[in-house]
């Protein structure tokens, strides 16, 4: 049986014939330039009627090739599985990206075919092609195993914003992230204000920018308070009861941990010594979680403004796409104070030395301070 061929999708030429106008007139109307081209309202109505009758839809890829943009934003994650579970660390970032894209009238393209044979996702294919160019610009998130793709993307001039601070030698990477350094500094200062004079720090061995920032904030707080910095970078499975005994034996009354897993080990050790949290030992986790050490007791954790970071990343990307040609991406980092939804992102700033305009392309939003769940004054005699 012969296969019935589908009718070819209608073109602008078809619309022009139906409306009795030129193809240039159709192009101006469907691209929102009727007023700029002084097209009469009646002619515009005829074109729109023909578009509706024929079911014509503009080809966004063709618009992109003509350099007009197609109002498509890409989303690429370096994670092996796209984070769609509400329990995933990246889920709320993506919700913010989606919400802001909807508010701005942009569509999203999810890139999921960039994974190589080794399970790592790359921005560039083996032949050097870049799938992201289907979109006007892209939001990137996750931890890249190789920063060379980010550097190349920057050199190619493709508009993108990374969720999370990234340092790439020789490249200025536009990003929106959390101000982990300031958040951790303030959290440790809060422990000091309660009377803690020996505050330990537990981190994982593999260091990325977000963890480096957290540790830097801890060290800054210790230096400001005149107390010793006591960092330990070790996998949670390597921590032992003997290590715990030594730590509390030297007078440590509080710990700041980079994740919930490390905090959980402290709970295990404390339980074996009949110690309670926070009565005998205060603990802060620097990655927010809905769990806690005991039923009804939440962790005192640093709150990460994931949704607002996702929204701010889209706002910054769109400001880059809409900026005039003379606009430059400013290397300075903006730290937003007060309302995370304020004017902290992508604010054009006049250049005192000329007529060019800068866009602040590296933005850090404030974290929410830890609650009181696992924080208390040190036991009497240990302050």
TrEMBL record:
Record bears the keyword Glycoprotein: no
Pfam families, alphabetized: LacI, Peripla_BP_3
Gene3D superfamilies for this protein: 3.40.50.2300, lambda repressor-like DNA-binding domains
One Gene Ontology term of the molecular function aspect: DNA-binding transcription factor activity
Domain HTH lacI-type: 10-67
Transcription regulation recorded as keyword: yes
CDD domains referenced in this protein's UniProt entry, alphabetically: HTH_LacI (cd01392), PBP1_LacI_sugar_binding-like (cd06267)
InterPro entries linked: Cro/C1-type_HTH, HTH_LacI, LacI/GalR-like_sensor, Lambda_DNA-bd_dom_sf, Peripla_BP_I
Residue numbers spanned by region Disordered: 327-356
Domain HTH cro/C1-type residues, every copy: 11-34
Domain of life: Bacteria
Keywords: DNA-binding, Repressor, Transcription, Transcription regulation
Cited PROSITE patterns: HTH_CROC1 (PS50943), HTH_LACI_2 (PS50932)
Protein name: LacI family transcriptional regulator
Gene source species: Streptomyces hainanensis
């Amino acid at each position: 049986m012969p296969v019935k061929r589908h009718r070819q999708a209608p073109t602008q030429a078809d619309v022009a014939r139906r409306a009795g106008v030129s193809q240039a007139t159709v192009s101006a109307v469907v691209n929102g330039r009727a007023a700029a081209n002084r097209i009469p309202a009646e002619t515009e109505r005829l074109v729109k009627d023909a578009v509706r009758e024929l079911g014509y839809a503009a080809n966004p890829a063709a618009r992109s090739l003509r350099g007009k943009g197609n109002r498509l934003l890409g989303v690429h994650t370096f994670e092996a599985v796209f984070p769609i579970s509400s329990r995933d660390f990246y889920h709320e970032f993506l919700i913010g990206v989606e919400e802001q894209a909807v508010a701005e009238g942009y569509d999203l393209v999810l890139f999921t075919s960039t994974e190589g044979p080794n399970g790592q996702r790359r921005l560039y294919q083996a032949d050097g092609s870049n799938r992201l160019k289907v979109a006007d610009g892209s939001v990137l998130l996750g931890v890249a195993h190789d920063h060379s793709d980010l550097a190349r993307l920057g050199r190619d001039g493709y508009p993108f914003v990374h969720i999370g601070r990234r340092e790439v030698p020789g490249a200025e990477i536009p990003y929106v992230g959390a101000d982990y350094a300031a958040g951790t500094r303030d959290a440790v200062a809060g422990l000091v204000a309660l009377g803690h004079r020996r505050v330990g720090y537990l981190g994982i061995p593999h260091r990325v920018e977000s963890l480096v920032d957290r540790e830097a904030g801890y060290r800054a707080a210790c230096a400001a308070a005149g107390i010793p910095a006591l960092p330990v970078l070790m996998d949670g499975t390597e921590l032992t009861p003997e290590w715990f005994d030594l730590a509390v034996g030297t007078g440590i009354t509080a710990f700041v941990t980079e994740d919930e897993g490390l905090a959980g080990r402290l709970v295990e050790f404390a339980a074996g010594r009949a110690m309670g949290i926070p009565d005998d030992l205060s603990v802060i986790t620097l990655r927010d979680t809905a769990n806690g050490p005991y039923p009804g007791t939440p962790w005192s954790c640093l709150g990460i403004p994931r949704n607002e970071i996702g929204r701010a990343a889209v706002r910054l990307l769109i400001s880059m796409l809409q900026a005039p040609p003379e606009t430059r991406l400013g290397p300075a980092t903006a730290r937003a104070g007060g309302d995370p939804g304020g004017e902290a992102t992508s604010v054009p700033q006049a250049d005192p030395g000329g007529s060019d305009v800068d866009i602040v392309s590296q933005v850090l939003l404030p974290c929410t301070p830890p609650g009181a769940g696992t924080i208390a004054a040190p036991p009497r005699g240990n302050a």
